[in-house]
Amino acid sequence: MISVAEALAHLFALAKPLDTEVVPLKHAGGRVLAQDASARRDQPPFSASAMDGYAVRDKDVKPGAVLTMIGESAAGHRFDGKISAGECTRIFTGAPLPKGADRIVIQEDVIVNGNQITIGDNLDSNHYVRAKGFDFRDGQSIAAPKKLRPSDIALLAAMNVPEVSVTRKPKVAILSTGDELVMPGETPNDDQIIASNSFGLYAMLQDLGADPRLLPIARDSEESLRTAFELANDVDLLLTIGGASVGDHDLVGKVAADLGMARAFYKIAMRPGKPLMAGRLKSGAMMIGLPGNPVSAMVCGKVFVEPVIRAMLGLGTSPAPEFTAPLAAEITANGPREHYMRAQLTDGQVTVFDRQDSALLSVLADANILVIRPPNDPARKTGEVMRCITI
Ligand SMILES: Nc1nc2c(c(=O)[nH]1)N[C@H]1C(S)=C(S)[C@@H](COP(=O)(O)OP(=O)(O)OC[C@H]3O[C@@H](n4cnc5c(N)ncnc54)[C@H](O)[C@@H]3O)O[C@H]1N2
Ligand code: MOO
Fold first, then answer.
1. Which domains, ranges and CATH numbers included, belong to the chain?
2. Does the interface ipTM go beyond 0.90?
3. Does ligand 1 have an atom closer than 6 angstroms to the CB of 243?
4. Of 42, 152, 222, 291, which has the fewest Cβ atoms less than 10 A away?
């Protein structure tokens, strides 16, 4: 059995960044920017008022001073003239600052009488002017690679960038295997259960910005598995679930090998997740064979599939980000496999759940972190600091 770190290194060797495509901005949220995007103008493109009030010359501003209004500057409609000594214009938020003006006095600070204003006694020192290029300059860029958040999309729009180059979404097929499985909503017989982790992985992949597809459940026969593998000829990654262990009906490894899969590894010193396998299929796609136990598949999704998808998206090769936090209660020694334990982080303290069987999805749903225990980690006392990842 290889270590988790060795398995990740194998996976990163298989997962190459995908090609790119150009998409309109409204479809770019959550995608990964593949080429730097540069502003096509200054923002604001002119010195602009930050408030509703009066555009004035700073040197004319004194409590009690009377200024004559010679026009108006509104957003989208600048005042074309020039302000001279003793003059001002009405101005609104976002409007271009007229020539000659270098300050806004807000309307709350003046008394208006016809076309004259009198400056009040309680002025603040703020000029309320946003200089040309105050937000960003023409040519300023957002550096790739970057997963585009809503705030990035707003910035790109302001930069007058209508479309961006992004990494293609990885196409991922999810294949559940087993005679015992039916789809949610179907009527199982007495010996059957509902396929679950396939749906959890589908949601995880959607969140990551991949393009997942659920294949029909394959039965525990070589023929059914072969047919299902063929349905995944066009994908970047095939995730199989179950049939990975040593039982008589665990046929995934054999069928994959028969179909020409070049295996990178099988079995890792990890709990849950021991029978994980990976390799390259004849089609060129990557395959990751996940263990069937629901929690094992989901934990392997977090620890292996998520970094693989990030690598395919061009976001680099790094494991799930870790942090540390102290234990709220003691825990017993770990066994020989690196253990990813379901736990709850509350008020900065970690409570590791007692029940860690890899069939317990309810315990996974109650957890908000996984605590990582190295092989043979000794018993740990309250307050000891543990490595954790968010789930
Ligand atoms: N003699 C041994 N037995 C087992 C070993 C071992 O080393 N020696 N390893 C155990 C470990 S650890 C794991 S993990 C499991 C993994 O086995 P498989 O990957 O072959 O998975 P299955 O046997 O097909 O299924 C296990 C379990 O999970 C349920 N399952 C499968 N797919 C789904 C799905 N899509 N949704 C929900 N539940 C699913 C399945 O019904 C089984 O209950 O092997 C141990 N055995
Ligand atoms: O390695 Mo298995 O995934 O413990 O249940």
1. 4-18+168-312 (3.40.980.10), 30-41+139-167 (no CATH), 48-130 (2.170.190.11), 322-390 (2.40.340.10)
2. yes
3. yes
4. 222
